[in-house]
């Protein structure tokens, strides 16, 4: 089974260009459709903040400004898609409620691509990242410079359900990779797991992998990032939000450390 539809949420701004280039690399690698989904600021999200006592004239002005921005963003996305020059690229603009349209597009896509800003909680697509990653539990690629499909992939493995889901969802990517390394830190995990069992699982599915046992305790993210650098990994595959989301937000957690790192592109699945 391969990936047939790659989705790239867009804000309709100049910064979308870099994200689209990365999404095209991923889509081209699989001959997949690239859905360029314009997710404008939603008027429905603004209304509760205005309240009944909000001045009518100011309210109308604010809503008109949002409508104009949405139209401008729609045109900007259309232009970017045309300039991208990928024949299987399709521009889609969402109407209010934007979150509902975004959810449906995500459910009908194999992978959703975001950039570093959205993944780190910055910019107009930060909420979209949280929605896709945590609420919709869709596979996400955080695209960084040097993203390529046929390079080296490091798979983080601790025997948990999050790591299992990420690894299984990433199988089409692993099958195309030139090199796959399975890495785990037994001393940093409360689970008992055997990296060789995962190597056997992958071999039965056409993926040749090697193992790397990471020595150390505590800082799983640091160990994984070090292993990724050592392997020259282009992509790191990992389960996301293995602890309650609030706990991860407050205390950091492996997921947040990976998102805030300057390591390779991340393929994450919750």
UniProtKB/TrEMBL annotation:
Gene3D superfamilies: 3.40.50.12370
Protein name: UspA domain protein
Organism annotation: Caulobacter sp. (strain K31)
